[in-house]
Amino acid sequence: MEYLLAIESTCDESAAAVIRSDGVVVADSVASQEDLHAPFQGVVPEIAARAHLQKLLPIIEVVLRRSGIQPQQLAAVAVATEPGLPGSLLVGLCIAKALCVAWSKPLVAINHLQAHIYACQMGRSESIYPCVGFVVSGGHTHLYRCHTPLQWEFLGGTIDDAAGEAFDKVGVMLGLPFPGGPQLSKLGEQGDPAAFEFPRPMLSDQNSLSFSFSGLKTAVRYKLYGSGSQALDPSLIPTQMKANVAASFEQAVIDCLIGKCLLAIRRSSEARLCVGGGVAANQRFRTQLRRACELANIELLIADSKLCTDNAVMGGLAWESLRSGMATDLGIDICAGLVR
Ligand code: KG4
Ligand code: ZN
Hints:
Blueprint (H helix, E strand, L loop, with lengths): L2 E6 L4 E8 L4 E8 L1 H4 L7 H23 L6 E9 L3 H18 L3 E5 H7 L12 E6 L4 E6 L5 E6 L5 H11 L6 H9 L25 H12 L13 H29 L4 E5 L6 H13 L3 E4 L15 H6 L17
Parallel strand pairs: 1-4, 4-5, 6-9, 9-10
Antiparallel strand pairs: 1-2, 2-3, 6-7, 7-8
Helix pairs in contact: 2-3, 5-6, 5-7, 5-8, 6-8, 7-8, 8-9
The site of zinc ion has 5 residues, from helix 4.
């Protein structure tokens, strides 16, 4: 049996995993940076890069020790090189390159969005491909037609904010700690999702697989604080109002996400939908998407909740590159932006 070391540092999680060639995860660990970014209510790129510098090597050491695998036994070192925050990506790539040189191992570059979809493959023996892949995270809300793990075409995505970004920004308006997504969802459990009729941007446009969340975000702001330019003070908003806004906002986002997933399946010839990314950990979204797919006779795979947010386990994707003979040159650079 062969093993590879996968490294993830695209945003604000430093993660590493040792994965066997049959997909079994031998060891993995994620070091969150949430406490470092919380005072700023968002990810600060420079802080993220510096934290990766401190956290990645110790995490790699821990994961190797736990796995009982010696570096000499590794078949390759894999690292996510796109897309993401430039500084964060650079730290991960430099560390991966250094390990490859020190241990004389091949490097495998991973596309982080393909990996989010591949998270649905982990733990399954039958291939999930071909499928419509949906990445719904803090940085992306994008639909792809995935022919294989490594060959895909872009179908549509957000034209402004990602869904997770909208969750986080509305979380700030509600006075919730960063990252707002999980906290907002928890608060919404106490609220009425029908209390406010927030807009569902682009949902009714059956010709488009685009998403848009910035107008929805503004609608929430106006509902909470009016349309003036006054400073946000969540302590002035009654608790039940906050819960109702959280639930109604969450429902508006979910309606948009589900509507476009169903449209993407209808427009492609695929019958299977595979969903990954941080927002896919949202319980209400998972339940409602399952119901919608059952009704529409669509096979649905959603990544395991703990594999939705950033992790290195989904770097098992690198085995697909190795099997297809795709070698990565050690001179490779990062690619921070989205290549469609
Ligand atoms: O995939 P991820 O860890 O990082 C990116 O690649 O962006 O996603 C992080 C995003 C954050 O915006 C976070 O608020 C959101 O996923 N998120 C959630 C939930 N858990 C994480 N959003 C809504 N409900 C959740 N339960
Ligand atoms: Zn991600």
